[in-house]
């Protein structure tokens, strides 16, 4: 799945424990985490035919960095790279 449309695209795994699934996403590293999370939730909701979660309910956790990503910063600013695994919590 693809979220965002910029030139700096990276491929990451997004794990969603609530669905017991892992998705491959191509994400625009120049978009803020807040914007990307909205795109991710919309795409997953359509794919799985489930309702979207409310804004502010979710966070992206970087497994490699062992921290929750700041929603107001971009993936690039936070050092997220190709091949990283992020967990939607």
From TrEMBL:
It holds the Pfam family YukD. Residues 12-89 form the Ubiquitin-like domain. InterPro entries: Ubiquitin-like_dom, YukD-like. This is Ubiquitin-like domain-containing protein. Transmembrane segments: none annotated.
